[in-house]
Amino acid sequence: MFQDLRFGVRMLLKHKGFTMVAVLSLALGIGANTTLFSVVDAVLLKTLPVAEPEGLTLFEWQSGLSFRVNGWSGTSNVPAPPGRRGASLFRYEVFERMRQARAAAPESPLSDFFAFAPINQVAAVAGGQAEIVNGQAVSGGYYAGLRVQPILGRAITDQDDKPGAAPVVVLSHQFWRERFGADPSVIGQPLKLNKLSFTIIGVTPPAFTGALQVDYHPAVTVPIACEPLLRGERSRLGTANKPGAWWLDLMGRLRPSATYEQARDSLNGAFQAAALDVMPPPRKENEPAKLDPKDYPRLVAQSGSRGMLDMRKVYAGAIYGLFIVVALVLLIACANVANLLLARAALRGPEISVRLAVGAGRWRLVRQLLTESVLLAALGGAIGLLFALCGKGALMALNEKDTGLLPRDVDLSLNWRVLAFTFAVSLLTGVLFGMAPAWRATSPDLATALKQSRRMTGAVSRLSKGLIVAQVALSLLLLVGAGLFIRTLYNLQRVDLGFNQENLLLFRLQPEQGGYKDERLSQFYQRLFERLDNLPGVRAATFGRVALIANDNWFNDILLPGETEKTAAEHSTMRQMARENYFATMEIPLLRGRGFTAQDDQRAPNVAIVSQTFARKFFPNEDALGKRVTFTGSKREVEIVGVVADTKYETQRQEIQPLLYTPWWQEGEVIGEMHFALRTAGEPTALAATVRQVVRELDGNLPVTEVSTQTARSQATLGQERLYARLLSFFGGLALLLAAIGLSGVLAYSVAQRTNEIGIRMALGAQARDILRLVIWQGMKLVLLGLAVGALGAYALKRLLAGQYFASSDWQRQMAEQLYGVKGTDPAIFAVIVSLLTLVALLACWLPARKAAQVDPLDALRHE
């Protein structure tokens, strides 16, 4: 082996041009795959940074569709069989019954059982600086169950998670370092959260971000018993007059030798009884009072080593899709290097024939040639790691700028799993692209090979041609994918939003976190508008509860005139609560009726303005003006006094939905956080500092968040599409470059092999243009065949992905949903890509053809 390595190094150094092209081709493919695998590892495969994560159990549940719940608070993306519902969220009362059942069982398979849930948007005041941070509520056994020990102070215990206990908080390591300067004396100090004082009792380790969700990093963690202190009337625990929500995630830790099935069975009875006890009564006449036993909710237990899985599944489609793309790039690189090795093996034919003639075994020579191939792959893998480091930084920079593809602050470190993957890929590619050339090179007819016959040239040529066809076909697939996403981005950027997004400065305020509510909250907003309306450079100032084109929404079930809850069909509308000048400021046209006025306050009759789609859908054959609709939750009836033009609501790609507007004065308890919009005379961002100062003068404890222009916010919602277009364009261009190098290399080899033939043709009267045409057509035949194979492959892939198995796949469905205003077989995109491929192929063919046309006939005839 040492001799093989020495000889392989000598051969690679002897042919530096070949070595450089082969190593760089492989380095690009391996580097791209290593970068994407680091993403797969960090987002989809990595286990929690806790002790013995494999012992953790995650609980979910399934039920029939007729099982009823009061309401959800959080994400619960759990797949379930057809006709059943899957969820990962639990009510607090249900958790308590399950915890009591575990404690009462002397031989429970669970040593620990705990609950946790996010608390978004907490106003924290640290060092006199107010900011909005993410929080988390946990049960007393959370840290003990995870086996996480704080680096400072202590963790939350069961004694802290009791009604009436002193409010305490545990800080994340990052928050402690950034806001308290890593000061160890913070233990025992107060921290204001939503204007309430909490005592700091601990700081978590650096590796533990605080939560078990891949994209959620809470800065502060409090006991579940303190959740009502932070959320006030919006508490999800529930009261005597208000039922609680399903909002908690549940996990446990298995005892040694216990199984997930045992954990599930030990708690299923308590869960089922508690869930049925809190099920609300039927709202409609056709709903049964009693639930059929087949629809009873049933507990599901699975591994919790990776934490919560719902958001991992959200990111899986995009990540696996890009991973397939870079795998195709690596295949093209392998085909390219295999072609180079085939050409090189043909030139080494006499050397190999002599070795065989003097007694070398075939497998000995195959081993020698494979050693050279693996050595090439190892060099490619080493340089690929350097490319992966650069690619990781570029990918994270794109993700921070464009958002949407990966979770924020994801750790893409090249750990041992990533290094093992790179080593395995390098070894596999070395064997993959080296085996066929080695096998071909060691199977000549010695009698003729020693006479320098070219008999084996035809076989090698056919294999080379097949690899070129495959490269062109794969390049076509990647470039078509890039074209589809570029066209999607183009279409989305030109969607008519229904309002003027130019010269709009946006920001968000959450005064209720500062203790403002009812009349005091309304007065605060009035004082703020008195200042904003008079700011120099501000043409108009308004606000709404929902930020447009920001993946935000608010909707209500409604009753149409003459309907009751028990007899009504399902009617739902998107909602917006706004100031009276909202439509004028956003430049949304009023089509019929009137707009809101300052007189539409709490003393006036309840009114509403609806969109065109709302009027068309719910009142198709009559005028919507003067009609009354009722919100099913609050039982509040409103009269429609105006109709405005349709606008996009959540995103550019979402279809226009019915939308109902109400004046903010008439919303009462619903008034809370608001999204402000200032129509400016000049550059909106120039007023950002002034707006912060105005709010600070009114209340220094209220942070101004999400400051942006409407144009920037709209572009931010297209971050994933923009990133797809850029990455696919890069990888498609890389694949095209590799294919062009491979085509040019094969033709150059062919020209070298046919030097005698070309000389004879020119001696018999062939012109340079005839030789150019001969060589170019030889390459273009392969390109045209590759384009045909690629088109057939694209069609077959489209049919396959539309089949029953793939159509039900989450990641495939997510990838298909990324396209907008374009079909997978768009003829315009195919025409552009085919034209681009043809032009690049013509250039790749022209270079060796030009060399062939310059052959001197006398030198060519003496070539042998």
- Specify the overall morphology: globular
Distance between the termini: 36 Å
Rg is 34 Å
Strand content: 15-25%
Question: What does this protein look like?
Answer:
- The strands form three sheets. Strands 4-5-10-7-9-8 form a six-stranded mixed β-barrel. Strands 15-16-21-18-20-19 form a six-stranded mixed barrel.
- The protein has 864 residues and is an alpha+beta fold.
Relevant terms:
864 residues, alpha+beta, 6-stranded mixed barrel
Write a compact overview of the structure shown.
The protein is of the alpha+beta class and 864 residues long.
Task: Compile the SSE list and pairings.
Blueprint (H helix, E strand, L loop, with lengths): L1 H13 L1 H30 L10 E9 L19 E4 L2 E2 H13 L5 E17 L2 E10 L3 H5 L5 E2 L14 E4 L1 H8 L9 E4 L2 E8 L16 E4 L3 H5 L14 E9 L5 H18 L20 E6 L6 H38 L1 H9 L4 H41 L13 H26 L4 H4 L7 H37 L10 E6 L8 H15 L5 E7 L10 E5 L12 E7 L3 H5 L3 E4 L13 E5 H7 L9 E4 L5 E8 L14 E5 L10 E7 L7 H11 L6 E5 H7 L2 H35 L1 H9 L4 H34 L2 H4 L2 H8 L9 H27 L3 H5 L3
Parallel strand pairs: 5-10, 7-9, 16-21, 18-20
Antiparallel strand pairs: 1-2, 1-11, 1-12, 3-11, 4-5, 4-8, 4-11, 6-9, 7-10, 8-9, 13-22, 13-23, 14-22, 15-16, 15-19, 17-20, 18-21, 19-20
Helix pairs in contact: 1-10, 2-8, 2-10, 2-11, 3-7, 8-11, 8-13, 8-19, 8-23, 10-11, 10-19, 13-19, 13-21, 13-24, 14-17, 19-24, 21-24
